[in-house]
Write a structure and sequence with these properties.
The complex is a heterodimer of chains A (about 450) and B (about 60). Chain A is α/β, with parallel strands linked by helices. Chain A has helices spanning about 5-10, 60-75, 95-105, 125-130, 145-150, 165-185, 205-215, 235-240, 245-255, 300-330, 385-395, 410-415, 430-440, and strands spanning about 25, 35, 80-85, 110-115, 135-140, 155-160, 160-165, 190-195, 220-225, 275, 335-340, 355-360, 365-375, 380, 380-385, 400, 420. Classes of the chains: A alpha/beta (about 450), B alpha+beta (about 60). Chain B: It comes from Sinorhizobium fredii (strain NBRC 101917 / NGR234).
């Protein structure tokens, strides 16, 4: 990666897997209006506990959004990116998007601006996005063939009328490709989000990956469809299922070598706040935010200085660990699940983990492959058996769990299910621990390097 | 004639407000309301009523 690109992504948690250990994003829900209907979306229902794109608890005016951003910037030192990602479309509900960005940029000049869009109204705003220094854009592209698109989009609203069927999908496709090409021409980094819908577009996404790579997309994020009848989406009601973790991984693996894949996405809410994988949104609802907060950048500044100091150390340890695993040249692979709160370290207790990050150690080194969401085992100090059963199911296929602390009881239950767990490497760098573990597992530690 | 919004089904996304060519729609308190005096059903401006056409909820923006 060239240094100019690294500068653009090094503090954007979504565009860089490495950065997501350090930096946080926030979304403001200022753009509720949308110009297309997707079969996986329903804007009518909200639940605070639901982590689903498009879902929000409160819609904000640009002035309210500014208040919220300043309050979060004062309190969350990791904050680096402000995004507008629904519940509607940031380019369609353009006046509110623009007003929000202009206000925030004048108050907090160093915050990165980012939008997520379906692409239909994107081409008409690309120049203004560039002018406002919007550095990152995500376009949701689920198809490059309108016959596939027809199954995903019941209608679009374009040029003052509603289109349906193949006509709708064709217009959307053309606008998406045009918008992507325009962004690439202006040097704005693009991420493509695709929803993997089994039987509808799963294999077609291989073709999508090729098209977007050719048009300069920086990153491709293939996410599983979230579908539940209780959400009231069209797909939820028709019984269209989402893929399981192994199906998603299989598609990710087939896409290797195309446009670079994003594997650390958490499919967050359109009003999420904090590091990926955590959502502090409920701490910053309008009734918790001062009426006229004054921006104080001290915490963010201090945090950035700390990250700048420790980051090289982490990168060095990480590269060394990866090289060690690769050079051991072992055929077998190790699936490792890690409990972490960020900073690139194993620093979360097993019972408090809301997710596990999954790494694979193999002949090619150490690769981050995804994450598994779970209900935490500990509620108010003691473990719950039902939660543990859910965690064991979610950790299907994992060899070893690494965490900061774990009790004997859950450890034994995991062992019975064939999953080992250890807190031996608590607070170590993730990759360094996996490398040490790999050496022990396969007997390749320098003193006994015979394998 | 005019259109009206069935408030109980409306998601308050506001798309109708900015698509309306007659400025007939505004958020009043907790709901979007169409002013029947201003609503022209888009006659002479667009072929299709813009509010009903852009509304994401079926049967929510309907003839009064």
């Amino acid at each position: 990666m060239d240094s100019a690109t690294w500068e653009k992504i090094k503090d954007h948690p979504c565009f860089s897997e490495e950065a997501h250990h350090y930096f946080a994003r926030m979304h403001v829900a200022v753009a509720p209006a949308c110009n297309i209907q997707c079969n996986y979306c329903n804007r009518k229902y909200d639940c605070a506990n639901e982590s689903r794109p498009g879902v929000v608890s409160e819609k904000l005016t640009p002035d309210q959004a500014l208040r919220k951003v300043v309050a979060v910037a004062n309190e969350v030192p990791q904050l680096s990116v402000l995004g507008i990602a629904g519940p509607g479309d940031a380019c369609y509900d353009w006046n509110k998007t623009r007003a929000t960005f202009e206000r925030v940029a004048s108050e907090i000049p160093d915050i990165k601006l980012c939008i997520s869009t379906n692409g239909l109204a994107l081409p008409e705003h690309v120049d203004k996005l560039a002018e406002m220094n919007v550095s990152h854009v995500t376009i949701t592209i689920n198809m490059v063939d309108p016959a596939v698109g027809e199954k995903i989009y019941p209608w679009i609203f374009y040029g003052h009328r509603r289109y349906t069927g193949v006509d709708a999908a064709k217009i959307l496709h053309e606008q998406q490709m045009l918008g992507l090409e325009m962004l690439t021409a202006r040097g704005i980094l693009t991420k493509i989000n695709s929803v993997m819908i089994p039987g509808v577009n799963d294999l077609h996404l291989i073709e999508v990956n090729k098209w977007v790579k050719e048009r300069g997309a920086f990153l491709h994020n293939v996410m599983p469809l979230i579908s539940d009848p209780a959400h009231g989406t069209s797909f939820g009601l028709t019984g269209q299922r989402g893929p399981n973790a192994l199906e998603l991984k299989a598609l990710h693996d087939r896409l290797e070598g195309g446009a670079k894949l994003m594997r650390h996405c958490r499919q967050c809410r359109a009003d999420a706040v904090g590091l990926l994988g955590t959502d502090r949104g409920q701490e910053f609802t309008l009734d918790h935010v001062p009426l006229e907060p004054h921006y104080d950048g001290a915490k963010r500044q201090a945090y950035r200085e700390v990250v700048a100091r420790i980051r090289d150390d982490h990168l060095e340890a990480k590269e060394k660990a990866i090289a060690t695993v690769a050079s051991a040249n072992i055929r077998g692979s190790l699936q490792v699940a890690v409990a972490t709160k960020g900073g690139g370290r194993i620093n979360e207790h097993f019972g408090h983990a809301k997710e596990f990050q999954v790494y694979e150690a193999s002949q090619t080194g150490i690769k981050f492959v995804g994450h598994r969401k779970v209900e935490p085992y500990c509620h108010g100090g003691w473990g719950e058996d039902a939660a543990l059963a859910g965690i064991i199911a979610a950790l299907d296929g994992i060899d070893i769990v690494l965490c900061a602390r774990i009790g004997d009881c859950p450890k034994e239950r995991l062992m019975e299910a064939g999953i080992r767990a250890t807190d031996t490497y608590g607070y170590d760098y993730i990759e360094a621990a996996i490398s040490a573990l790999h050496a022990t597992e396969f007997g390749t530690a320098p003193s006994q390097a015979t394998a | 004639m005019a259109f009206k919004i069935i408030a109980s089904q409306c998601t308050q996304c506001g798309a109708c407000e900015f698509e309306c060519p007659s400025n007939a729609i505004e958020l009043k308190g907790e709901k979007y309301v169409i002013d029947p005096k201003k609503c022209t059903e888009c006659k002479g401006v667009f072929e299709i009523q813009q509010c009903a056409s852009v509304c994401p909820m079926p049967k929510t923006c309907v003839p009064a």
